[in-house]
Design goal:
Elements (H helix, E strand, L loop, with lengths): L6 H12 L14 H15 L6 H7 L4 H4 L6 H13 L3 H6 L4 H18 L15 H13 L7 H32 L3 H15 L6 H8 L9 H21 L1
Helix pairs in contact: 1-5, 2-3, 2-5, 5-8, 7-9, 9-12
Length: about 250
């Protein structure tokens, strides 16, 4: 393995932006980078990142495991490519969204929310320093365009995009974890609450936690409330105040 600073990063970026060149001589490639990445995404969707390996992807493509290394140096690079592949799924719809800034951000957030539910493994990928692939950069370009011309400066425009993305990713993470908890523990939400209720019936006399009791009686824990829609609207309300101030 190369110890060159940024070597792994450079390999991923080269693959994203330049692809895999066809050999100057000899037989042409029998696979394609696109097929490999899409097969990897399908495996991660169905079984999670833990199931991802070059051997597993090769089996999906009915190819030899070593043949994949002609296209992708390793699993780290493959995951980088998978992330950018997913970023590209809704780009055309994102670019075509119409309406005012609020309607466009709302639709973008809804598409991002749906992406995380389709590809929950995306929430495991660190995004502190996201890789600047062609799809992720275009997605960011579109997002910034949605708040351009509102009177916000460049820092505020970026802040709005980050705030919305962080809200969607944060709530998606807790939602996905809740969905996965039933599979991992074998306990449905109803069973989980039933066990708690049995314990609380003796451990917590009525009136001990009045606020939580009030919420329970109101059905807050039923999961019927649209937390995503509510939170997004409140976030956009706050952004609207800033926009109004800048346009005054």
């Amino acid at each position: 393995m190369s110890t060159e600073p940024g070597g792994e990063l450079r390999r991923s970026l080269d693959l994203m932006w330049q692809g895999v060149p066809e050999p100057a001589r000899g037989p042409r490639h029998s696979l394609s980078l696109e097929r490999i990445v899409r097969a990897a995404v399908a495996v991660a969707d169905a079984e999670g990142l833990a199931a991802l390996s070059m051997r597993r992807i090769a089996a999906e493509l009915d190819a030899g495991a070593m043949s994949l290394y002609r296209y992708v140096p390793g699993k780290t690079n493959l995951i980088d490519l998978m992330v950018d592949e997913v970023y590209g799924e809704d780009l055309d719809e994102l670019a075509a969204v119409e309406g005012d800034w609020r309607a466009r951000i709302t639709r973008s957030a809804q598409l991002q929310w749906a992406t995380y539910l389709r590809h929950p493994w995306m929430l495991q990928i660190p995004q502190g320093r996201p890789l600047l692939g062609p799809n992720s950069m275009r997605a960011t370009e579109i997002a910034l365009g949605q708040v351009d011309g509102l009177g916000l400066d460049e820092h505020e425009m970026t802040g709005v995009v980050i705030a919305v993305n962080s809200f969607v990713a944060g709530l998606a993470r807790s939602t996905v974890e809740n969905l996965q908890a039933a599979e991992q523990t074998g306990l449905s939400d109803e069973d989980w609450w039933s066990v708690h209720s049995e314990v609380f019936a003796t451990a917590l006399p009525p009136g001990t936690m009045p606020m939580l009791e009030r919420l329970g009686e109101a059905g807050v824990w039923s999961g019927d409330f649209d937390s995503f829609g509510f939170g997004l609207e409140r976030l956009l309300d706050g952004i609207a105040v800033l926009v109004a101030e800048r346009q005054a």
